[in-house]
Amino acid sequence: MTIPDLTDVHPAWLPPEAFRAIGSRRVPVLGDGALVETVREEVAAARARFGGGDRDGGGDGGAAGCVLALAGADGLPGTARAVAAEAGPLGAEGYALARRDGVTTVVAGAPAGLLYGLFHLVRLGEAAFGADRPVERHAPAAARRMLDHWDNIDVHPVMGQVERGYAGGSLFWRDGVLREDLTRVRAYARLLAATGINAVAINNVNVHATEARLLTDRLDEVVAIAAELRPYGIRVHLSIGFASPVTLGGLPTADPLDEDVRRWWAAAAERVYAAVPDFGGFVVKADSEGQPGPFGYGRSHAEGAGVLAAALAPYGGVVHWRAFVYDHRQDWRDRSTDRARAACDHFAPLDGRFADNVILQVKHGPMDFQPREPVSPVIAAMPATKLAVEFQVTQEYTGQQRHVCYLAPMWSEILSFRPWGEDEGGRTVADVAVGGGGLVAVSNAGDDPYWTGHPLAQANLYAFGRLAWDPRLDPAAILDEWAGLTFPETAAGLRGTLHAMMDGSWRTYERYTAPLGVGFMVRPGHHYGPDVDGYEYTPWGTYHFADRDGVGVDRTRATGTGLTGQYPRPWSEVYESAGRCPDELLLFFHHVPYGHVLRSGSTVIQHIYDTHFAGVEEVVAMRAHWDKLDGSGLVDPALHARVAELLAEQQRCAEEWRDQVNTYFFRKSGVPDARGRHIY
Ligand code: GCV
């Protein structure tokens, strides 16, 4: 295996310089296994670059040396044996780190742990080789930390090569064929492993005809991609079409209870595992936005998932069954149907009826990855089901990687939310995910030279992996880590600017877009930029109901759709009350007059004006921060230019949001801005 070393692609958080501390020392790697081999090669490549090995010789790594070892490895030096004994069992992916007597030791119980230990050393840099450190144990919170790609093989006429992709083409396919050179896939795997990701679903959950065949006659492409991801401990998962027994197998039905259908899935799984023995499993979007599913055969989603689970079970595979099921052909005149209720209505009655190897993958909010939503009620409603919480790193509704929008603060807020308040031992969303199916997110990476289009959007990909490893990490500390790795020589000078621009950027985005949790108001289809009524009279179930008197969606039990009743206490009561509902979710749960006084003391209409003016001012301030870096030598001029250009677009777009939203609500309500600012 060779360590990918791409010269025409930005190195993101693994520039060669990040390996200096390791590469300039002698670092024995002890143990066997494919991932240990990866560690050995990483260390060798770093040493070749930085000349380690001649300075600090000695079996234990020498006076300022380092040892990376599996706990049971032959020839384990005394210090490593002592650290392993003190650390105790480390699990399949954990590791322990210590520094004593001038030797830094990383021990792991299994090869994957050693790989993660290596990347921990990379994060620490020279700090790993300073003063003594007591034994620290590290292990991932969740067993599965997964990214979903919405990549197509064929360029889709509307959605393109990557659905909701804002970073160029697919890393895997181009114009209908697998890329010949997959070096970049290996480099991607390396970046992901450095954050802790260990599973990747490679194709779009909207499975079109060509992509469905990855399961059968295009399986060799899955084999090839798996071979690139495997050296970094990442398993491949595949999105499959529920109707495959019909579309690929020629059967007359895909009824999950039909014997031939069961046999077909079992045979398909057998073939996949013969080709990819460490295959992770299937991802399924069924009965959703036009995808086929069990409803078509009068079966439940537990039955639908069951046939796939049975096929994968002999090999240890899992089904990620998505809970994103709603009626996308709703009549906007029908005020009783509420898209936000749909997932809970469909799935909560099925609690306890899914097979053991099914993971119900739930979007974090009840709607669809809006910048502000309450936590999905499904998360508290299915205690007897393994749940994974799904985030969207790709910025479909958060600026499409043209806007700076650091999402870790949003994810962190969601993960630390307590769905039962202080009841249930104060369990958080993270506790539910960690104890169940883990965390999943839609990737934001593509074949763009910066991986993520906007260079600063790399921080979102990095942060998702780190939060999936440890949901309690502080978003600002993750940003520091990312900056330290990405800009190893200049991070100290850049940190202030990056924090000023990024820490609050999600809230800034929220301020200049749809107010108070009402959501959408985006241009239909591509979802970029404002169009307040764009979805108002469409079948998609995404309405704000603004009229001359007020705005918002009444989802109360008393007078609305009753969504509030899907939450346990205290939230069922808090959300039900317009007086107690948090301001930022008011219009998600309530239809209120423009003069309604928020908990902040402002009225709804004045809040709309104030936040939209403030949001633009914050973007202007972001630009000023970035402009000051011009010519400073702190960032590469090409990267500076790319971000500067995108910030200009962000400001233009934010102004458009401000002016359309403010004008719309001024015209509807007739209420002037208390501060007399210009509204059109
Ligand atoms: C992959 C949203 C997006 C769709 C996406 C869907 C999903 O509706 O706009 O592009 O489809 O979510 O999560 O399945």
Notable traits:
36% helix; binds 4-O-methyl-alpha-D-glucopyranuronic acid; single chain; eight-stranded parallel β-barrel; alpha/beta; 19 strands; 680 residues; five-stranded mixed β-sheet
Could you walk me through the main structural features you see in this protein, from its secondary elements to its overall organization?
With 680 residues, the chain is of the alpha/beta class. It has 22 helices and 19 strands. The strands form five sheets. Strands 6-11-12-13-14-15-16-17 form an eight-stranded parallel β-barrel. The chain has a five-stranded mixed β-sheet with strand order 1-2-4-3-5, sandwiched between helices. The protein has a two-stranded antiparallel sheet with strand order 7-8. Strand 3 and strand 4 (103-108) form a beta hairpin. Helix 15 (458-469) crosses helix 16 (475-486) and helix 18 (505-512) packs across helix 21 (604-628). The model is unreliable at 54-64 (pLDDT under 50). The structure holds 4-O-methyl-alpha-D-glucopyranuronic acid (GCV).
